[in-house]
Amino acid sequence: MAAIAAGTTKIVYTLNGGRIFEAASNAGWRNLNSGVRGATAAVLAVGNNKYIYAA
After folding, report:
1. Burial of 20 by CB count in 10 Å (0-12 exposed, 13-18 middle, 19+ buried)?
2. C or N: which end of the chain has fewer Cβ atoms within 10 Å?
3. What is the CA radius of gyration of the chain?
4. Predicted pLDDT of residue 1
């Protein structure tokens, strides 16, 4: 699991079944599929961009 703040939005990433899900405070904390697959993940926010490293 990873958590970041992108501006005023808080985002939590979780890993389940090889898929990375994103839940954001501005989307009602719905757990949405990010479209990224992996067994491990790291997340970084730079400005308005989010980078997901998955391996």
Report:
1. buried
2. C
3. 10
4. 83
What pLDDT, on the 0 to 100 scale, is given for residue 30? 96
Q: Which two tokens stand for residue 55?
A: 């391996």
By the 8 A CB rule, do 6 and 46 touch? no
For residue 11, the model assigns a pLDDT of 94
Tell me the three state secondary structure of residue 40.
Answer: coil
13 with 53: CB under 8 angstroms?
Answer: no
pLDDT digits (tens, 9 = 90+) for 16-37: 999 999 999 999 999 999 999 9
Residue 34, classified by CB atoms within 10 Å of its CB into exposed (0-12), middle (13-18) or buried (19+), is middle
